[in-house]
Amino acid sequence: MCVLESRRRKNLVLLGATGSIGRNAIDVLRRFRGRFRLIGAAAHSNVEEMARLIGEFEVPRAAMFREDKAAELRAMLNGRCEVLAGTEGVATLAGDPEADTVISAIVGAAGLLPTLRAIESGKRVAIANKEPLVMAGAIMRAAADRHGAEILPIDSEHSAVFQAMRSGARGEVRRILLTASGGPFRDAGRETMARATAKEALNHPTWNMGAKITVDSATLMNKALEIIEAHWLFGAPYDAIEVVIHPQSIVHSMVEFRDGSVVAQMGLPDMRLPIQYALTYPDRLDGGLPPLTLDRMSSLDFMPPDRERFPSLDFAYEAGRRGGVAPAVLNAANEEAVKLFLAGKIGFLDIFDRIEDALRTLDINFAGGVEPSLDEILAADRWARERVASK
Ligand code: NAD
Ligand code: MG
């Protein structure tokens, strides 16, 4: 019975199937067809790619965020796959009673309700979509405890921390050191940053990712969000989470234990490895991914971040320590500012100004206290977006 159980293929739902993480996850699934069955896939609007994926993996159920695209996909598939629509459709898929594991890889706050549904359904939730954790980390953690869900990180830094944490007990951890490549403007002067175009910001030195997170990497807002993400994933106080610039992106993060030992996890900058680990944990399997060779390790540099040029890190510490809806405001202001920047409506440095303005104008009493409800968090998210868009 036990043996049969452990050999059953795990049922998987993939949210954000057409994105950068989604495609990497599909590559991992192709390597482990005997271990996982894709029973659901969700995306925003790319019906062609979804139809191909559904055909290849014989996916029985899908969801498109856009209703018109759901209708289009239904027509294309001619009854071969049930297609749900809208946020509720995506959330229904995330809570599929048949699913063992849900990969949360939608970008931004749009992933909050589906990810929460997966947690409330008691699943293993492999989270790439960090924004919901930033917005509502306390609610997600409490829901995971209540419903016996397992939250595992896909974000490479947090996967590294998660792996390094296995070297000691939680109470023995002194510091978490999150590494950051520094992005395309690591050594740029303020004038260069002020003039930076979307094309320049999208030119990441080491990682190939979706547009929003690539801009976040250029502003270090990605690392800022990751500080708050680490706080919720590992229950670490903000004083114990630090950021280190490491341009080669080979050391994915480190954990310092109280005896002074620092345990690092290394690998190529390739998201397939942390995705695979979140899916197969606690096992380690050979998926045939390219190995880390010595030439990539010949020089590894580490330096402190420039907090003057990149105020994002201090925004995160401030919002995180303040708690309540402040992290949700930080996240929403950033999402909205990045949209404006990508549309050519504001400059690169304006992203910092818009976020700072939202954090400064956030009334301390906005939407109730230190433990806001989901509705209060969503209201704060809307408020911050309006504030940023109307400046
Ligand atoms: P992406 O833009 O490439 O893909 C986003 C995916 O989400 C797409 O499949 C899109 O269709 C889907 N989507 C967007 N809005 C949706 C909605 N309302 N409903 C349903 N689906 C929707 O983004 P990405 O780079 O893959 O990043 C996804 C998440 O993973 C982000 O939160 C990012 O911070 C995180 N992450 C990404 C990487 C990476 O290497 N790309 C690394 C670490 C963490
Ligand atoms: Mg990361």
Give a short synopsis of this structure.
By secondary structure, this protein is an alpha/beta fold.
What does this 3D model show about the protein?
It is a single chain. The termini are far apart. The radius of gyration is 20 Å and the shape is globular. The longest helix has 18 residues. The strands form two sheets. It has a seven-stranded parallel β-sheet, with helices on both faces. With 391 residues, the protein is an alpha/beta fold. Helix content is 48%, strand content 15%. The protein contains 17 helices and eleven strands. The structure holds nicotinamide-adenine-dinucleotide and magnesium ion. Magnesium ion (MG) binds next to helix 8. The site of magnesium ion (MG) has 4 residues, from helix 8.
Features:
391 residues, alpha/beta, seven-stranded parallel beta sheet, four-stranded mixed beta sheet, 48% helix, globular, binds magnesium ion
Ranges where pLDDT stays below 50 over 5 or more residues in a row are none
Total of helices: 17
Mean pLDDT: 96
- Biggest sheet architecture: 7 strands, parallel
Measured distance between first and last alpha carbons: 62 Å
The 3D shape can be described as globular
Let me know the number of strands.
Answer: 11
Topology:
Layout: H1 2-7, E1 10-15, H2 20-31, E2 36-43, H3 47-57, E3 61-64, H4 67-77, E4 82-85, H5 86-94, E5 101-104, H6 112-120, E6 124-127, H7 130-147, E7 150-153, H8 156-164, E8 173-180, H9 190-195, H10 198-201, H11 211-219, H12 221-234, E9 241-245, E10 251-257, E11 262-266, H13 272-280, H14 312-322, H15 326-342, H16 348-361, H17 374-390
Parallel strand pairs: 1-2, 1-5, 2-3, 3-4, 5-6, 6-7, 8-9
Antiparallel strand pairs: 8-10, 10-11
